[in-house]
Amino acid sequence: MDRLKISTAGESHGKALIGIIEGIPAGLPIETQDIDKQLRRRQQGHGRGGRMKIEQDHAEILSGVRWGKTLASPIALKIENRDWENWQKGMSPLSQDEGSIDPVTRARPGHADLAGCLKYGFRDIRNVLERSSARETAMRVALGAVCRTFLAQFGITIGSFVIRTGGAGKRYYQSAMNELDGLKDIGNRLIAFSAKADESVVRCPFEEDAQQMINAIDEAKDRGDTIGGVFEVFAVGLPIGLGSHVQWDKRLNGQLAQAIMSIQAVKGVECGLGFDLSQRFGSRLMDEILYSDEMGFYRLSNFAGGLEGGMTNGMPLLLRAIMKPIPTQRNPLNSIDIVTKEAKEAAYERSDVCAVAACSVIAEAMIAFVLTDAMLCKFGGDCIDETVRNYKNYLNYLKEF
């Protein structure tokens, strides 16, 4: 990212998570309740683990905001880990506490355990698993809430919903891409899907599919297993022309895919119709261009998912991602003790059965980062009023083109 810089720090069972975001213009209204709302959404979902009963995440603003408005300086947030009280010796930064808990030496297949220890020379896997844990994504969601507030100044809405859990659900929802009733209706439909998803314990807006997903999660839990799934994440209200075709690293689709792929356990990302585009004739899959004085250039379909040539085309951005089953198993898999080299069962850490619902909310934060950076690259501004003025001037230019 060119204009936005985001960093997080903290371990899963450490004292707190810390996040810093730089590049937000001055004057943006920020309230902690808006951040906490997104944190609550991340913690929901059928099949979540015992930690959700312990943590009720709350973000504290440490810097960069005064009297509810950003200062253009770095914004620092803190989320305390309530489980820290049980780990004060085991995760202490002090050398005098070394050895207060036993090391973890049995690597878990599917995790960062083995590669991380070999890379950094650790003989205790806890030095890897504490940071590689998805607990870190709580801070991504908190920082993403700041970006969501920024994007809302321009009428941009971000949302998501789960479409598949294990074998339950659908490959994708055709109505999100091609309903032949115009841009506004496609966007409104996506927003309605996301709102309905927030009422579901599996974040699926379709009741029949949602019940099948609940059943699939319960079955996995009874087996002592885990289950993955697929979700869609979108943004509505984006202007034409974010991103660029002129260099590979400026293409917005690449930036968005990397952002979502950075989420723990995500193994694939599609845009629009995605991989199914390969199975049909091109003449049936290009989003034909129309024009009216009221709407300007527009489309009646969205097979491209709102991106053409690495740039937004004015249609809703629509991405789809697959999350693999969480690799930590209640019935441990075969592994090796990294110290003794003996065959052992993998270590078990408290874990979820299914976290696809949470992953969809995390993905919202990730695309909020990328889109905020793209908006700042396009429209600049040291204060939010300046950015909004530049944006409005661009919209006027599009109308006059």
Plain-language structure description:
There is one protein chain. With 401 residues, this protein is of the alpha+beta class. It has one domain: 4-Layer Sandwich (Chorismate synthase, AroC fold). Helices cover 32% and strands 19% of the residues. It has a 5-stranded antiparallel β-sheet with strand order 8-7-9-15-10. A 4-stranded antiparallel β-sheet has the order 1-2-6-3. α8 runs antiparallel to α9.
- Tally of separate domains: 1
Assign an overall shape.
globular
**CATH superfamily caption:** Chorismate synthase AroC
What fraction of residues sit in β-strands? 15-25%
What fraction, in percent, of the residue positions are helical?
A: 25-40%
CATH topology: Chorismate synthase, AroC fold
CATH architectural name: 4-Layer Sandwich
**pLDDT averaged residue by residue:** 93
- Biggest sheet strand order reads 8-7-9-15-10
| SS elements, strand count | 17
Model regions low in confidence, pLDDT < 50 over at least 5 residues: none
Q: Structural class, please?
A: alpha+beta
Radius of gyration: 22 Å
Specify the oligomeric state: single chain
Binding site for NADP(+): 42, 48
Organism: Candidatus Magnetobacterium bavaricum
Catalytic activity: 5-O-(1-carboxyvinyl)-3-phosphoshikimate = chorismate + phosphate
Binding site for FMN: 131-133, 264-265, 309, 324-328, 350
Note the topology.
Blueprint: E1 5-9, E2 16-22, H1 32-43, H2 51-54, E3 59-63, E4 65-66, E5 69-70, E6 75-80, H3 113-120, H4 126-132, H5 137-152, E7 157-165, E8 168-169, H6 183-197, H7 207-222, E9 229-236, H8 252-261, E10 266-271, E11 290-292, E12 296-298, E13 307-308, E14 311-312, E15 317-323, E16 334-336, E17 343-345, H9 356-379, H10 384-400
Helix pairs in contact: 1-5, 1-9, 5-9, 8-9
